Each structure stands twice: as C-alpha cells, then as structure tokens.
Amino acid sequence: MTRENIHRGWLLGVLLIGPFMAQADVTIVNVAAPSIHTGLRASGAALQLVVGGYLIAVAMLLITGARLGQAYGYRRAFLAGAGVFSVASLACGLAPSPAVLVAARILQGAGAGVMFPQTLTGIQLHFTGEDRVRAIGRYAMALSAGAVSGQILGGLLVSADVAGLGWRAVFLVNVPIGAGALLAAHRFLPADATRESRLDLKGVALLSVSVLLLIVPLTLGRAAGWPSWAWACLAVSLPAGAAFIVTEGRVARRGGSPLLNTRILTIPMIRWGLVTMAIATSTYYTLMFTLAQYLQAGLGRSPAESGLTLVPWVAAFGLAGQLVRRLPATRWLPAGGCLLLAAAFAGISTGLFAGAGGEPLLVPMFGLGGLGLGLQFAVLAARMTSAVEPRYAPDISGVSSTVIQIGGSIGVAAIGALYLDLSGHAERAFAITTAALAGLALLASAAASLATRTHVAAPATAPAQKLQEARR
Predict the structure, then answer these.
(1) 260-472 has which fold?
(2) Taking each helix axis from N to C terminus, what angle separates 268-292 and 359-386, rounded to the nearest 10 degrees?
(3) Residue 159 CB contacts under 8 Å (≥ 6 apart), including other chains
(4) Given this model, what pLDDT does residue 472 score?
C-alpha cells in the first residue's frame, strides 16, 4: 500500500466520523428518553423536542451546510460542525433543566447538519472510479452502523450508569469522540482552497422555512394528535418549497451562486435516484422505530437486545458496498437491491401472519434487507456523483442527505402511526407494518428502474458532458 493510499484511508476515516456520530445521536436518545424523563423530570412535550429538535435542525441545515463547505472549504465546515456538535454534546450532558437540554440538542443538530454533508463532498472530490465506489460503500456502512450503535450504546450506557451519570453519559460520550475527530481532521483533511462564492442568504431563508414547515409537523404532529397547525404547516410547505426552487433557478440564470443548483435535478439519473433513495431509506428509518416498539413493548426485550437484532442488517449493508465493485455494471442493480428489500419485508410479514415470529425469523430477513438496501444505496450514490462535475459535489451531498431525512420523517410519521394504532396486538401490527414497507420497497424499485433507464455508469472523467446535455 502506497503512502498516498494510506493518507487517503485516514482522510476517509475522518470523514466517516461525521455521518456515524450524526446518526448515532438520533437513536441513542430514543433509548435514553425514559431515563431523561425520570432524572430531569421532563414532560412528554419536552422529550419530543429533545428528540425532534435535533432532527429538525439537521434537516434544515444539510443543504446549507453543504454549500458552506463549498463557500468556505469543506475542511473548515467539517471542523466547525464537529466543534459545535462536541460543545453542544457537553452542554446536553451537563443540562440542569429540560429547557437547556432542548436548546443544546437543537445546537447539536445544527453542528451535525453542517458536519454531515462534508463527507460525501470530500468523497466526490478525492476519490474516483473504483476507489469512489469503495468509499461510498463505507459511507453507507457508517450511516447504518451509527444508527444501530446508538441503540446499543444507549442501552449499555444507561443500564451501566457509568460514574453515576445515568442518561447524561449518552451525550458526554460524544465529547472525547468529537475531540478526536477534530484532531484527526486537522491532521488528515487537506487544506481548503480560497473562498469561492458568497452564501445565498435568501435561499437559506426560503429553504429553512420550507423544511421547517414540513419536518416540524412530521416530527411532532403524531404525538400531539395531529392538530390543525400541523396540517396547515404541511399544506404551506408545498408552495414554500416551490418558491425556493423558482428562486434558486432565477439566481442561477442571473449568473449568481444559488444555494442549490437546480439544474442537477433535470438529469433523470439524479432526479429519480433521489426519489429512490428517499423511499428505500424511509423503510429503514421506519423499521428502526417500529422494531423497537415491537421487540421492547411487544416481546419484552431490552433496548440493547433490540439494537443487537439489527446487527445482521448493518453487516449486510456494509457487505453490499464491497460487493458492488465485483458485480457486473448492470443498470438493474439498484432495482434488484430494492426487490431484495421488498422480499425481506414480505418474508417477515408472511412469517408473522403464519405464527413464526421472533428473532429466528427476523435475523435472516434483516440480513437480506440490509444487503438489498446497501446495493441500492451504493450503486445509486456512485452513479449520481459520477453524473456531474466535482464542482456540483455540495449540491449532490446536500440534496441527497436532505431527501433521505425527509423520507425517513414521512415514513416514521405515516407507517409508525399505523403500527401504534394497531399495537394492541404486537405481532399483527408488525406484520401489517412490514407488509406496507414491502410495498414501499417495490415503489423504490420502480423509481430505480427509471433512474437507470438511460444511464450507463460513466467514468468520473466524463460527467461534464452529461450536465451539458441536461442544460440543453
């Protein structure tokens, strides 16, 4: 292995800390929520904001964070995001009241929203060809592993009551990890070039309002009983989003630097690829939510056991990223991966209706589902990043992360509510839920077919022609 390869290995390792930490802090707090309720005397509404405030802040800043990386350098943006995330984690761990904890969680989400998108940007800028495919496979594994590790680590830390810290340990554990990430980033991330452009503040405002109107009701509406304000926000979010797209197109036509270059959405590979990712990944977010309810409330498993059940999924997801390099470059791989995902959910549903529930059914099906989702994600991410020039890396990174976040929120809000409505009979509820997830996976397969219908995997040296064709 050459010195250059070793250096790029460290570079990738540093970049992967971002998505791992950001995802882990979504699930780790879900596990710790009962202890926060008891130890801090937090109300149900406060607990909702502890979990939801983080997700809202992340979703609002993903595209803006990616553009900050282009305007000021992705290394600077990564360092700033990781620094804010670490300081906010310390504030969460030391919070004396629910109000302080909620504010610190929102700040923590803001740090994650800036740090997260720099990973895919860095991969697109520094890796090409098979190296990029391999890097994206590991990126996919970091996302999935972070989510499951949060569940496992949260359960272990709360149960162990480390140094009498109780729930506070789930936040304080981020401080040494964040400090290590900052030191490693200083050492291994290449220095940024000079500033390229100014930030589109009008675009930031419009995007923030649009995402806020969509994510807030999806995150908090179910627990609040879907009040009228939630439906009003969802209705207004559509014209607000349209206004953002129109405004960004106008900025681009005038020769400015839009927050999101909407030209990339004219490329079928990217447009349908984003739809596929949103639908397919939403099934995983929904699974994590409903599985925890099914195993813990329905079957009486512990939080740590619930998290460990998903290990086969994570392992297969990571394996898929490595398999992609050895499989024929056929356009059917993403659609085939979604079909495997659908088969896994259908297998779980069929088994439960037949009376064969529990871990003996779930473990092999989760392995199949993780493999399918991993194949879809690794192939589409590689092809989407190769479909445009490297200067569009922030656009791909920001918009893909945002649509995945929004898709996950919609999935949890809609199908999570379906499970809770039927949860009086846990096995029947989970069987119906996984049947619905199988249907979503089939929709994702259809979208993947459209994404790859006219696309042939191209080398990273020839994306400029594709964008020129999209502009005509």
Answers:
(1) Growth Hormone; Chain: A; (1.20.1250)
(2) 160
(3) 302, 303, 304
(4) 39
